Structure formats: structure tokens, C-alpha cells
Amino acid sequence: MLSQGLEMQRLTPENHSRFRWSGWKNLLLPQLNRRSLYVYGSEVAVEEECVRQKEGGVLVIHPFSRLRSYYIMCMVAITFLNLIGIPMEIAFLDGNSGVGWEGFNVFSDTLFLIDVGLNFRMGIINEDSEGAIMDLKSIRHQYLKSWFIPDMVAAFPVGYILLIADLQYHSDSPSSRATKMMRILMFVRILSLVRLLRVSRLVRFFNEVERVSNANLEVVRVFLRILSLFMMIFLLCHWNGCIQYFVPMLEEFPSDCWVRRENLMNATVGEKYSFGVFRALSHMTAISYGSSETPTNEVELWIVMTSIVSGALMYTVMVANTAAMMTDVDITARAYKNKMNHMEDYMTFMKLPKALRMRINNFFQARYAGKWYDEKDVLKWVSSSLREDILMTMCSAHVRKVPFFRNCDINFINAILLELQYEVYQEGDVIIRQNTPGDRMFFIEHGQVLVENEYFQRELCDGDCFGESCLLTGGRRLATAQALTICQLFSLSVDSFHCVLKDYPDIRKELETFQQDKDILLC
What we know:
Layout: H1 13-16, H2 34-40, H3 43-56, H4 66-93, H5 98-118, E1 124-125, E2 132-133, H6 136-144, H7 148-154, H8 158-168, H9 174-192, H10 198-212, H11 218-250, H12 258-261, H13 269-284, H14 298-328, H15 331-349, H16 354-368, H17 375-380, H18 384-400, H19 410-417, E3 421-425, E4 430-432, E5 440-446, E6 449-452, E7 457-460, E8 465-466, H20 469-473, E9 480-483, E10 487-493, H21 494-501, H22 505-517
Antiparallel strand pairs: 1-2, 3-10, 4-9, 5-8, 5-10, 6-7, 6-9
Helix pairs in contact: 4-10, 4-11, 5-8, 8-9, 10-11, 11-13, 11-14, 13-14, 15-16
């Protein structure tokens, strides 16, 4: 018998439009991609998340939305440029940054201030359950107690201060203006160091990229980690090189400083930067090549020691991250890869056609999502009470939707839950065929299934069930069920059902009465 639950129609351009917001608001909704399907399980669940967001009635950017993806990519680029440009400006440009760079500074400061405001309307991925936190009060509370203060400090609008000062003293005489601007410039240079706190934003943006991209693929996750590691190492070397020149500049280049020794006072910015980075790398790699002279003053001595320590830390971070990535490609992922290698060898040996190979690979990805594990084995590791709680959380609502299970004793339901088997079908797979012996019924966790015969056709989705008539009649299937999307199902076999039923004679009598009173011969 087909479930009496909600009958969902297949999403078509005609009925899909009723879910749409007008114009740009569509960009706030979760998009259908590998990551959202991985989290929500099916197209229907993603569509229901869109409906939930619209019914909320407030403008909140969903963490899986297209706008969020574009925004993160943009902010990664802007933040990285800031973390490169700000030390260069402080150390080398000496107030001659030009209109273009000043404009970029003002634009960046504006963008980071806007970012602070937008974070109060950014949905948060909920690690404890499937879905996202979209409640404004919860978002505000979490942001205020976590990153609000560091973000406000990092967003300090230094670019505006320089712009206002330039406009304020624009009418002064050149000599007076130069004196005042030099004082302001020295103050702003020190103040600009605050903006280097934006490195925390870069790390968080990279984490966001990993979480909202198709990062359930191990290869994508490893690539993002390696990329972020190399970017951090580059920034460390870049900052160190800028500091090498910045500190002597603050002291107005003493006669014994390395800048004068290398005769770089009137050199171009490129030459100064190159020598600074070369000197920093010599310290960090501890090869002393190019910086073999002993520091001549206390400040230079501390700079050299700091460079050496930062180099040691860089090595430590590289080794630790490499080791973590090697062990983080965890046991389940490696087991999955080994199984897939065996499967590839088998498919090659048997000369299976390319289309069939693709279906097999897609099945393994849908079934295990890159992690090899055995549900039965995993559930054996926990106590019987926890096992029941896990299965109750996952499947109880599905079982209760079956009419003849609806009012059954909780102990009987728990016994049924322990017999459920997890199965995955791909789009186009025939789950059951008409006129074949009925051996089990199915509960749909995620996905869409079309049940049809010559007399009727019905589409089922998340939470529905089908094939239950075989549990009571033991007859043949009266309809064919085909997967319209990737389907994650739980099945209950006839043998397991009757095995449980032996311990509950009262329920057996109720079900026999139900069978006589109801027509349950649809599937």
C-alpha cells in the first residue's frame, strides 16, 4: 500500500515557479549542488529548505546560496590583496601610494565594514543537525559572542582617516602640509597594523570555502588545505620581508643598519622589497646566505632572532600539517579508496562497458560518500539503548506513517527498527517490479520514487513508504517502483517482520483484523 502522506509532484518549470522569489532574492536561497545534496539528502529536501527560508519572511543569506559562494570567493581575493598590500604600503611606499591604492584602501575598508553588518544576516551551518541556522536572533547571538569584536577592530577604516586628512590639509602651504601629513602618516602606519588582523578573516573564509563547496570529496578538501597552507607560508615570508625594512625605517635608517650597508636608500620599491624578503628567507631557512653579517644594534638583533624563530615555526607548521593531512585522509576514506581500486580492477578484468562502470562508481559515491563503513558493525559498538535511540531518531517517523504501525506498542516499533536495512538506489534504478514476489517494504529517507502500473501512477518523496502489502499478504507486487533521483531508503524484509511478530501475538491479531478490514493491495 502506498503511504497516505503528502504526494509530491515532480519538479517541473511550471510548478517550480511557485517556489521562486522575485529577482535578486533568489540568490539568497540554497542552490542545488553536490554539497547541498550531501547535507540535505535529496532534491526535495533542498526544495523544502528553500520553502522554509521563504516562509521565514526575513532576508537571510543561506550558507549554501549562490550569493554566499560568490561573496566568499570575492572576500578571499580582497582579504589576500589587503594582507599583501598593507605591509608593502606601511614599509615601502612612504606616503606615495598613489590615487589607485588609496581608492582600493577606501573600497576595502568599506567592504569590511559592510561584511560586519552582513554577518548578522548570514545563515550558519549547523554542525549538530542537517540544515542551517536561519533565525536572526540566533545568528546575532552567535556572532556577537564569537568574531564580532575582532572583525570590528580589523575593519578599522584607516583609509578614511588618510582621505579625510588629505582633504583637510589640501589648502595648506606645501611645507606645512608636508609636515602635518608626515605626522599623520607615521600615526596611521602604526594604526594600519591593526588591519593585519584580517588574516583571521582569511582563515575563516577558507574554512567557509571548504564547508560550502563540494568538499565532501576528499580530493577537494585536501587541495583546499594545501592551498591555504601555502598562502599562509607566503604571507609569513612576505610580512617578514616587509618588517626587515619597516623597523630601520622607523628609526630613520641608522648608519649601521642593513639598509645603508646595502646602499638601498634611493633604490626602487622592487629592489628594497626583494632584498628584504631575501634577508628574511635567509634567516627563516637558517642558511645565512646573503645575511652573514652580525647584527650591529639591539633592534636588528631582535629582528633576526624573530625571523629565525618564525622560520622554525614555519617548518613546524608545515610538518604538522603534512602529517595531519596524511593521517586525516582517514581510515574510512582509505578503505573506500582500496575498495574502489579492487572494483576498478574487477571492472577492467571483466571488460564492463563504460556506462555500467560509471553507474557503479556513482553508486559507491552515493552510498558511501567517500567513506567506507558497515552500519551493522558501527551499531554493534554501542549499547542496545543507544542503538535504539539512533534508529528511533533516523527511522521512527517513517515507520509510524505506515497505517498498520501507527498505533502499535513502542517496544514493537523498536524491535522493527532494529531489523531495518539501509539501501541506496540511483536515478533510473527499478526498486521493485510488478508481478515479482514481494519480499520487503521500503521507507524513503531521501529521494523521489515513481510507483506505477497500468491503472495508476504516483510519485513519492521523503518520508513516504511503499511495498507494505507484502508484509501481510505475502503476494506478488502489483506495481513497479522506480527511482527518479538518488534514493536513500530503509527496507524491512518479510522474514524479519514475521520473526519480530512472533513475540507480539496481540499485535499479530490486530494486523490480521486490519488486513480483513482494509484493501491493501496497491503495491
